[in-house]
Specification:
Blueprint (H helix, E strand, L loop, with lengths): L2 E3 L6 E3 L4 H4 L5 H11 L1 E4 L6 H11 L18 E3 L11 H10 L14 E10 L7 E5 H7 L2 H7 L3 E4 L1 H6 L3 H4 L2 H4 L4 E4 L1 E3 L6 E3 L5 E4 L4 H15 L6 E3 L6 E5 L3 E5 L9 E8 L6 H4 L2
Parallel strand pairs: 2-3
Antiparallel strand pairs: 1-2, 3-13, 4-15, 5-13, 5-15, 6-12, 6-14, 7-8, 7-11, 9-10
Length: 287
């Protein structure tokens, strides 16, 4: 597969590939090798149907379901949108807007679940005239460049991940919704070791609410200090969406965030998040 680098540290655009037929052509192994190496893959000019989107996501792992599909039914495709759309987590328009704004904090998806995610495959469905970029940083590179004094302070810690924490950052009312509070705190070590190439990545983000053995104030301060160190402007790849774009990234080694746009204009993205398997190195991050 031919690629163009998008950032000096990570992220490539994969050229001349039709994702809709890639699985059938048995080229998933090639795709997965790029995923392990570059962490973020960008595909342009795609016509990926919902069914093809689902099949591709299932190659990475079981499709995650935060929307409680009925037993025996396939999980609904999640939608991230500022319009009333099936597949969003909250239906109230005001709360839906706040939920979107909470995504402006650096995060990795679903770290609050007992089985975390390995990938997100995000598809552009409707785009505004400006803004709405999705930004990414590599926590693998971030760890490698973290000052030694910070490495020593964070390396052996266990972080408690809480869905409601990231929502409370934007509005306490949002953070109290049962949609978010129903998940108990989930502990993870700060480093996730990639079993394919042996590289460690920081595993944290806006869902990380506390550090075991530290006061809330001290723990949150350390999380904020490390997060600031790895998300400096030069570390960021900012993706300007076009219709036909599909992005695939490694949740173990990437933090991402959404950027604002004129909210009177629609921005709709479709996402399938896949759960990690034991073979993805979960044991290294499990306390």
């Amino acid at each position: 597969m031919r690629c163009l680098p998008l950032h000096k540290d990570f992220a490539v655009e994969v050229l001349d590939q039709d994702l809709g037929t890639l699985v059938q052509s048995e080229r998933y192994r090639d795709l997965r090798l790029l995923f392990e190496t570059h962490s973020l893959l960008v595909f342009r000019n795609q016509t990926l149907s919902e069914a093809q989107h689902r099949v591709l996501a299932e190659c990475f792992g079981p499709i995650e379901d935060l929307r409680d599909a009925a037993e025996g039914e396939a999980p609904e495709r999640p939608i991230i949108s500022n319009v009333a759309t099936a597949g969003t987590l909250v239906q109230d328009a005001t709360l839906q807007r706040l939920d979107i704004e909470a995504n402006a904090y650096w995060h990795t998806d679903s770290s609050f679940l007992p089985m975390p995610s390995i990938s997100n495959i995000l598809v552009a469905c409707a785009l505004p005239s400006s803004g709405g970029e999705t930004e990414f940083v590599s926590t693998r590179v971030g760890w490698s460049r973290l000052p030694q004094r910070l490495k020593a302070r964070i390396e052996d810690k266990i972080l408690l991940h809480r869905f409601a924490n990231s929502r409370s950052l934007i509005d306490p009312v949002l953070g109290r919704l049962e949609t978010y509070t129903r998940y108990p705190d989930t502990p993870w070590r700060t480093l996730w070791l990639n079993p394919v190439n042996g590289t460690p990545s920081l595993y944290m983000g806006a869902h990380a609410a506390a550090i075991v053995g530290m006061s809330d104030v001290a723990g949150q301060a350390l999380i904020a200090e490390v997060s600031e160190a790895i998300t400096r402007p030069e570390a960021i790849y900012s993706h300007r969406w076009r219709l036909g774009d599909v992005l695939i990234w490694d949740q173990r080694a990437i933090l991402h965030r959404g950027r604002p746009w004129p909210y009177e204009e629609e921005r709709t993205l479709a996402s399938f998040v896949s759960s990690a398997r034991e073979s993805d190195g979960i044991a290294s991050v499990r306390p």
